[in-house]
C-alpha cells in the first residue's frame, strides 16, 4: 500500500481527518440484561484490480467515498458480506508483505476468532460493541491504521442505543479518521465518560492492497493504557424503541455576545422496572434577557435512586 494517493483523495482526507483533541461528552445508556463480552466483527469484500491502472496502482479509491463509508455502501460493495465473529477484545492486526497487485489469502490473527481464509491484502472489517466506563473521567482512544479506519463513538453517532441493527450502517459523525500516508497513520481522541454507562463504539477498517495495519487502544482516567478491551466492551440485544439517553437543556443569560455550552451533568435514574434511564443536561449561556429558563425535568418512571456526575466543557 505504500503508493502515492492521488490529489483528490489527499484533499478529501485533509478535510475529513480533522478531529477535536479536547474531551467530548459522549452519549451512552444502560441496556437491559447481561451483556456478552467483546466486539462483534463483520467482514466484507474489497477487491483490487490485480493489474496496474494508468497511475500504476492496483487499488481502487472507492473506500474513500461517502457512499462507501455511510449508508451501508460497504455492505453491498463487490462481493459483499464474507463472515462474522464475536467475543473479540484485542483489535491488533499487522500484516506485512512486499507483494502489490496480488490478492494474498490467509487467516486473521487468532484474536479475531475467525478461522476461515480471506484476502488479507484487501478487505473491509466492521467492529461494533458497547464500551463500558468503569470510572468517570477522560478516556483517550488511540487509533492506527493502514489503509483507513473510521471510529465513531457514542449513542446516535456510532449507532443507536439498543438499536444497533437498524442504525449501524449509517453512523453519525466520525470522531476519528486515520488514513495511511507517508507521514502519519495514527490519531487520538478524548471523551469524558460517566462511570457505569455503556457507550456505543463503531470501527470501520479497510485494507485496499498489500500490507495492512489496525490497532485500537485506550488510556483510562488513571493514565493506564489498555490494548485489550476485556471487561470493557459488550454486546446487548436490541430493544423495540431502543433505550435512548434523554437529553435536557438548562439555559441562562450572560453578558457575552455568543451562545456557549459551559457544562454538562449526566443523571442515571433507576426506574420502577429496575433499569436505568440516562438523562444528560447541557447548561447553555445565551446572550439574551436576564431571565433563566430551566427545561430540565425528571423521568416520569423514576424512583428515588438517582446518581449524577458533571463535566466542564
From TrEMBL:
Entry-linked InterPro entries: Flocculin, GLEYA_adhesin_domain, PA14/GLEYA
Range of residues in the leader sequence: 1-25
Domain PA14 residues, every copy: 76-232
Keywords, sorted A to Z: Signal
Biological process terms in GO annotation: flocculation
Chain residue ranges for the region called Disordered: 291-313
Pfam families: Flocculin (PF00624), GLEYA (PF10528)
Entry keyword Lipid metabolism: no
Protein name: PA14 domain-containing protein
Source species: Maudiozyma exigua (Yeast)
